[in-house]
Write a structure and sequence with these properties.
The protein is mostly helical. The protein has a single domain, classed as Ferritin, core subunit, four-helix bundle (Ferritin, Up-down Bundle), CATH 1.20.1260.10. A three-stranded antiparallel beta sheet has the order 2-1-3. Strand 1 and strand 2 form a beta hairpin. Helix 1 packs antiparallel against helix 2 and helix 1 runs antiparallel to helix 3. The protein is globular, with a radius of gyration of 16 Å. Bound molecules: fe (ii) ion (2 copies). One fe (ii) ion (FE2) binds next to loops.
Protein backbone atom coordinates (compact mmCIF):
# COMPACT_ATOMS: atom_id res chain seq x y z
CA UNK A 1 0.00 0.00 0.00
CA UNK A 2 1.31 3.39 -0.84
CA UNK A 3 -0.05 6.83 -0.22
CA UNK A 4 0.93 9.86 -2.29
CA UNK A 5 -1.23 12.77 -1.15
CA UNK A 6 -1.05 14.72 2.11
CA UNK A 7 -4.74 15.57 2.29
CA UNK A 8 -5.87 11.95 1.99
CA UNK A 9 -3.22 11.05 4.60
CA UNK A 10 -4.62 13.72 6.96
CA UNK A 11 -8.13 12.36 6.49
CA UNK A 12 -6.95 8.80 7.15
CA UNK A 13 -5.27 9.89 10.39
CA UNK A 14 -8.35 11.79 11.49
CA UNK A 15 -10.65 8.86 10.62
CA UNK A 16 -8.30 6.52 12.50
CA UNK A 17 -8.58 8.81 15.55
CA UNK A 18 -12.36 9.02 15.27
CA UNK A 19 -12.80 5.26 14.91
CA UNK A 20 -10.41 4.56 17.79
CA UNK A 21 -12.39 6.82 20.10
CA UNK A 22 -15.72 5.39 18.91
CA UNK A 23 -14.38 1.91 19.68
CA UNK A 24 -13.52 2.90 23.26
CA UNK A 25 -16.71 4.91 23.79
CA UNK A 26 -18.89 1.97 22.71
CA UNK A 27 -17.09 -0.35 25.13
CA UNK A 28 -17.75 2.13 27.95
CA UNK A 29 -21.41 2.60 26.99
CA UNK A 30 -21.76 -1.17 26.50
CA UNK A 31 -20.62 -1.88 30.07
CA UNK A 32 -22.99 0.77 31.28
CA UNK A 33 -25.95 -0.70 29.30
CA UNK A 34 -25.25 -4.10 30.81
CA UNK A 35 -25.15 -2.69 34.34
CA UNK A 36 -28.44 -0.88 33.70
CA UNK A 37 -30.17 -4.15 32.75
CA UNK A 38 -29.94 -3.98 28.93
CA UNK A 39 -27.56 -6.87 28.14
CA UNK A 40 -28.51 -7.07 24.46
CA UNK A 41 -27.94 -3.36 23.88
CA UNK A 42 -24.63 -3.89 25.71
CA UNK A 43 -23.82 -6.64 23.21
CA UNK A 44 -24.77 -4.34 20.31
CA UNK A 45 -22.32 -1.72 21.63
CA UNK A 46 -19.57 -4.35 21.91
CA UNK A 47 -20.21 -5.73 18.42
CA UNK A 48 -20.20 -2.26 16.89
CA UNK A 49 -17.06 -1.40 18.92
CA UNK A 50 -15.37 -4.28 17.09
CA UNK A 51 -16.60 -2.94 13.73
CA UNK A 52 -15.00 0.43 14.56
CA UNK A 53 -11.78 -1.40 15.44
CA UNK A 54 -11.89 -2.98 11.97
CA UNK A 55 -12.24 0.50 10.42
CA UNK A 56 -9.43 1.96 12.54
CA UNK A 57 -7.21 -0.98 11.57
CA UNK A 58 -7.97 -0.55 7.86
CA UNK A 59 -7.16 3.18 7.98
CA UNK A 60 -3.97 2.50 9.98
CA UNK A 61 -2.84 -0.13 7.48
CA UNK A 62 -3.34 2.17 4.49
CA UNK A 63 -0.83 4.48 6.24
CA UNK A 64 1.65 1.75 7.14
CA UNK A 65 4.46 3.45 5.22
CA UNK A 66 3.79 6.85 6.84
CA UNK A 67 6.21 6.26 9.70
CA UNK A 68 6.36 8.89 12.46
CA UNK A 69 4.36 10.87 14.98
CA UNK A 70 1.31 13.01 14.29
CA UNK A 71 -1.09 15.01 16.39
CA UNK A 72 -4.55 13.94 15.34
CA UNK A 73 -7.68 16.06 15.40
CA UNK A 74 -10.80 13.95 15.18
CA UNK A 75 -14.48 14.15 16.03
CA UNK A 76 -15.39 12.79 19.45
CA UNK A 77 -18.69 12.51 21.31
CA UNK A 78 -18.65 12.98 25.09
CA UNK A 79 -21.15 12.22 27.79
CA UNK A 80 -21.88 9.19 29.93
CA UNK A 81 -25.28 9.58 31.50
CA UNK A 82 -28.13 7.16 30.82
CA UNK A 83 -28.76 4.58 28.12
CA UNK A 84 -31.10 6.75 26.02
CA UNK A 85 -28.64 9.67 26.02
CA UNK A 86 -25.67 7.38 25.37
CA UNK A 87 -27.51 5.93 22.37
CA UNK A 88 -28.25 9.46 21.16
CA UNK A 89 -24.52 10.20 21.33
CA UNK A 90 -23.86 7.05 19.31
CA UNK A 91 -26.49 8.03 16.71
CA UNK A 92 -25.06 11.56 16.44
CA UNK A 93 -21.53 10.24 15.95
CA UNK A 94 -22.63 7.78 13.27
CA UNK A 95 -24.71 10.43 11.46
CA UNK A 96 -21.75 12.81 11.42
CA UNK A 97 -19.69 10.10 9.74
CA UNK A 98 -22.46 9.25 7.25
CA UNK A 99 -23.55 12.79 6.29
CA UNK A 100 -20.31 14.77 6.57
CA UNK A 101 -17.08 13.00 7.20
CA UNK A 102 -16.87 9.87 5.07
CA UNK A 103 -18.56 11.26 1.92
CA UNK A 104 -16.02 14.13 1.91
CA UNK A 105 -13.07 11.87 2.70
CA UNK A 106 -14.15 9.37 0.05
CA UNK A 107 -14.56 12.08 -2.60
CA UNK A 108 -11.10 13.44 -1.77
CA UNK A 109 -9.51 9.98 -2.01
CA UNK A 110 -11.23 9.50 -5.38
CA UNK A 111 -10.03 12.88 -6.65
CA UNK A 112 -6.49 12.07 -5.51
CA UNK A 113 -6.70 8.54 -6.97
CA UNK A 114 -5.87 6.92 -3.66
CA UNK A 115 -7.36 3.47 -4.22
CA UNK A 116 -6.56 1.95 -0.81
CA UNK A 117 -7.93 4.94 1.06
CA UNK A 118 -11.07 4.86 -1.11
CA UNK A 119 -11.67 1.24 -0.13
CA UNK A 120 -11.08 1.94 3.56
CA UNK A 121 -13.43 4.98 3.59
CA UNK A 122 -16.06 3.13 1.54
CA UNK A 123 -16.08 0.16 3.93
CA UNK A 124 -16.50 2.46 6.92
CA UNK A 125 -19.25 4.57 5.32
CA UNK A 126 -21.33 1.50 4.45
CA UNK A 127 -21.07 0.05 7.98
CA UNK A 128 -21.86 3.36 9.70
CA UNK A 129 -25.19 3.54 7.83
CA UNK A 130 -26.16 0.23 9.44
CA UNK A 131 -24.86 1.32 12.85
CA UNK A 132 -26.98 4.48 12.84
CA UNK A 133 -30.09 2.39 12.10
CA UNK A 134 -29.33 -0.25 14.76
CA UNK A 135 -28.62 2.37 17.43
CA UNK A 136 -31.86 4.17 16.51
CA UNK A 137 -33.83 0.91 16.89
CA UNK A 138 -32.07 0.24 20.21
CA UNK A 139 -32.93 3.73 21.43
CA UNK A 140 -36.60 3.26 20.48
CA UNK A 141 -36.66 0.13 22.69
CA UNK A 142 -34.71 1.74 25.53
CA UNK A 143 -37.12 4.69 25.62
CA UNK A 144 -39.87 2.16 26.43
CA UNK A 145 -37.65 0.56 29.06
CA UNK A 146 -37.12 -2.53 26.89
CA UNK A 147 -33.96 -4.29 25.74
CA UNK A 148 -33.52 -5.29 22.07
CA UNK A 149 -33.98 -8.91 20.93
CA UNK A 150 -31.34 -11.46 21.87
CA UNK A 151 -30.21 -12.49 18.35
CA UNK A 152 -26.52 -12.87 17.55
CA UNK A 153 -24.76 -9.83 16.08
CA UNK A 154 -22.31 -10.63 13.26
CA UNK A 155 -19.46 -8.36 12.24
CA UNK A 156 -17.37 -8.70 9.07
CA UNK A 157 -13.68 -8.68 10.10
CA UNK A 158 -12.65 -7.14 6.76
CA UNK A 159 -15.02 -4.19 6.37
CA UNK A 160 -17.03 -3.96 9.61
CA UNK A 161 -20.37 -4.81 7.95
CA UNK A 162 -22.84 -5.48 10.76
CA UNK A 163 -25.78 -7.87 10.72
CA UNK A 164 -28.21 -8.98 13.43
CA UNK A 165 -29.44 -12.56 12.95
CA UNK A 166 -28.32 -15.01 10.32
CA UNK A 167 -29.38 -13.78 6.91
CA UNK A 168 -26.25 -13.26 4.78
CA UNK A 169 -24.02 -15.99 3.25
CA UNK A 170 -21.24 -13.59 2.40
CA UNK A 171 -20.53 -9.98 3.17
CA UNK A 172 -22.58 -7.79 0.78
CA UNK A 173 -19.96 -5.02 1.01
CA UNK A 174 -16.59 -6.79 0.69
CA UNK A 175 -17.58 -10.36 -0.31
CA UNK A 176 -15.86 -12.21 2.54
CA UNK A 177 -17.47 -15.52 3.60
CA UNK A 178 -19.87 -15.51 6.54
CA UNK A 179 -17.82 -18.19 8.38
CA UNK A 180 -15.17 -15.55 9.02
CA UNK A 181 -17.62 -13.14 10.66
CA UNK A 182 -17.13 -12.49 14.35
CA UNK A 183 -20.19 -13.21 16.49
CA UNK A 184 -21.30 -11.21 19.55
FE1 LIG B 1 -20.08 2.93 13.33
FE1 LIG C 1 -17.20 -7.20 4.68
Amino acid sequence: MSLKNAMTADFLRSAYGGESMAHMRYLIWGDSAEKDGFPNIGRLFRGVAYAEQVHATNHFNVMKEQVGDSTVAAGAVFGHTNIVENLQGAINGELHEIDQMYPVYLETARFQEEKDAQRSFHYALEAEKIHARLFQEAQNSAKEGKDIRSETIYICPVCGFTEIGDEVEKCPVCGVKKDLFKAF
